[in-house]
Write a structure and sequence with these properties.
The protein is an alpha+beta fold. The chain has helices at residues 2-18, 32-40, 45-51, 61-68, 115-119, 134-139, 143-159, 163-166, 181-188, and strands at residues 24-25, 56-60, 75-83, 86-94, 100-105, 107-109, 140-141, 168-169, 172-173, 176-180, 195-202, 208-215, 234-235, 239-241. The strands form three sheets. The protein has a seven-stranded antiparallel β-sheet with strand order 1-6-2-11-12-13-7. It has a five-stranded antiparallel β-sheet with strand order 5-4-3-10-14, with helices on both faces. A two-stranded antiparallel ribbon has the order 8-9. The protein is globular and about 45 Å long.
């Protein structure tokens, strides 16, 4: 009798362990085929409807720390792929010669009730007295501007028109976005960061860009403290390829 109960409990535990959180989907590495598929993908209503379900791309702080603290890594690339009518994104670490030294796969966050969380960006401030390097200040983005960009991308998906223009440079689709690894390292070194959240948004030129926000264990937007209205730093100014970088190196 005891053996039967134990077997039943083991089976239940195994079943639970195999279940996925409905708000997240595991993402495999962006394959060469997926990269090529992205370059020719038809950004139609089917794509827009699928992409609207994507809240953010989550990069584990633990795995990201291992990547950006690898010796000789100078920059990271957020490489785009395409699968099931949805953009896929990986983070690749590169040295000063463009040699790839490591990779972190993202997990897609699909959270239908995340709008309330994003709206809180409008309530947050960024300390002007915080000690930051010139590099961090260069990439710093006001929370309100981040919200504006993310909202603009969602509106673009609602209208569908102009998606090719928003995701391309002079007719060539963006392949990856580049950022100095020191920016990512600063985000995860602040503590209590569980994920680096990559949100797609539109910049002032109405081109797709990557907006990076530190998230806690509940994937909530981090503040400097529970009661504070001051947010952890939000970053952008990632460089799209094309026109920046080598299109053949993605």
């Amino acid at each position: 009798m005891k053996k039967t109960i134990l077997c039943a409990l083991a089976a239940m535990l195994f079943a639970v362990s195999c279940q996925k959180d409905n708000s997240q989907e595991d993402n495999s590495a962006v394959s060469k085929a997926q990269k090529q598929d992205w370059l020719t993908a038809d950004l139609n209503s089917e794509f827009a409807n699928s992409q609207k379900k994507v809240t953010a791309y989550l990069f584990s702080a633990e795995e990201t720390a291992k990547l950006v603290k690898t010796p000789n890594i100078k920059e990271v690339r957020f490489v785009l792929g395409y699968l099931d009518h949805t953009i896929q994104i990986n983070m690749i670490g590169i040295d000063e010669n463009g040699q790839k030294l490591g990779i972190v796969n993202s997990v897609i966050l699909k959270e239908s009730n995340y709008d309330e969380q994003l709206t809180k960006l409008n309530e947050l401030t960024i300390s002007k007295t915080a000690k930051r390097t010139p590099l961090l200040n260069k990439h710093l983005l006001l929370p309100q501007e981040a919200f504006k960009g993310i909202e603009a991308w969602q509106k673009k998906l609602n209208s569908v028109s102009g998606l090719d223009e928003a995701t391309s440079h002079e007719g060539s689709r963006f392949r990856y976005f580049t950022l100095e690894s020191a920016v990512i390292e600063a985000m995860i070194d602040k503590g209590n960061t569980s994920n680096v959240g990559l949100f797609l948004g539109l910049n002032p030129k109405e081109k797709v860009t990557t907006i990076l926000i530190s998230l806690d264990k509940n994937n909530a937007i981090k503040k400097t403290s529970v009661t504070s209205k001051e947010g952890d730093d939000v970053y952008d100014a990632t460089r799209p390829c094309p026109p920046n970088g080598d299109p053949e190196a993605f």
